Amino acid sequence: MKVVAPSFEVLENLDRESLAVRIEFCGRICYKSEDKIDRESALPFVSKMAEHGHNSVLEMGVVTLEVDCADEGQVTGLFLTQPRYLQISRDGNNLLVTGSVRAFRELLIFHPDCAVVDAMCAYLNKSHPYFFSTILPKKGFTADGSIKVCKVKLSEVEQFPPEKLLKHRHIAVKFIVNRAITHEIVRHRPCSFLQESQRYCRYSDDKFGSEVTFIKPMFFKEDSPEYTIWYKAMVDTEQMYLQLLETSTPQAARTVLPNSCKTELIVYTNLAEWSHIFKLRSTKAAEPSMREVIIPLQQDFLQRFPAAFA
Ligand SMILES: Cc1cc2nc3c(=O)[nH]c(=O)nc-3n(C[C@H](O)[C@H](O)[C@H](O)COP(=O)(O)OP(=O)(O)OC[C@H]3O[C@@H](n4cnc5c(N)ncnc54)[C@H](O)[C@@H]3O)c2cc1C
């Protein structure tokens, strides 16, 4: 068995990658199949996700569009779709719209007759046909040119004033923490999440070192009696888990795994939601092992995005 400290990584490097590359990187965390990533693997991976409707994986790529509508009726048409998963800033008939691949796909599926949805998806389909090929409207796109759509580069988003920056700038963080902490983080519904799957990962496999990894509990000093009790519980648990795997599937054997089990979770959301999470999860009322990662993460964000968090 292995005991590791909790950690996090801000995945800002992913923002320089294509939508397909970043979606593949995040998606593979579920199966811990990052070793399968190569220069050719992203498109087949995301096409398969789109085809099979693995929609949560498609939340891991967002794009910001500038949409110039010809009249107010078109703007109203978009709002009437009640787009819960888009971030929209409005200036007259000019819109800034940020959404994930999933959000745009589902708008197209459920509201193909909305002119703004049609125009945005027609635009995205030009550069990313693999996201839309299985859900194209029967009559095709009708974009008549009255609505102008163009992509807003990340470098331009970063120049937005604070209010818009908080809304439109999304950033992903990968946490390596225990299962109790991820269970708390996933209560923040405005985020997108992907997590290492204990149903699929067989920790007796070579790639996991044939062992279970646990997160060091911050509650107990390493040489204390409490730590000794905890350590023994983990040793015994691992033994039982590995024994169950001899005759059972990982999803069956995992039923003995405890909260201390190490897990990986990618959380992707906008800066406004991160700010909200920092507020709730860094105070003394929050779980101490949550504060152990959230407080340093908050410090990291302050340095990365001073304009948004000033
Ligand atoms: C110190 C602390 C202790 C906690 N203790 C407990 C506990 O004992 N038990 C427990 O169950 N949880 C507990 N929680 C979790 C807490 O109840 C929330 O689930 C969590 O903090 C996320 O809340 P949120 O409002 O930020 O996010 P969400 O609940 O995800 O809400 C985010 C936004 O989504 C919108 N929203 C999403 N879904 C709906 C909906 N169905 N209806 C209306 N609006 C919606 C709202 O506008 C809201 O502003 C605790 C949290 C903290 C910080």
Fold and architecture overview:
With 310 residues, this protein is α+β, with helices and mostly antiparallel strands. Helix content is 41%, strand content 18%. It is built from 13 helices and ten strands. The longest helix has 21 residues, at 225-245. 34% of the residues are buried. The mean pLDDT is 96. Bound molecules: flavin-adenine dinucleotide. Flavin-adenine dinucleotide binds next to α11.
Determine the strand fraction and express it as a percent band.
15-25%
The chain-level structural class is alpha+beta
What is the CATH topology of the largest domain? Gyrase A, domain 2
Outline the low-pLDDT stretches: none
CATH class of the largest domain: Alpha Beta
Question: Nearest-angstrom radius of gyration?
Answer: 22 Å
Give the end-to-end Cα distance, rounded to a whole number of Å: 43 Å
How much helicity do the residues have?
Answer: 40-55%
Count of alpha and pi helical runs: 13
Domain module tally:
2
Q: Report on the biggest sheet.
A: 4 strands, antiparallel
Distinct small-molecule ligands in the complex:
flavin-adenine dinucleotide
The outline comes out as: globular
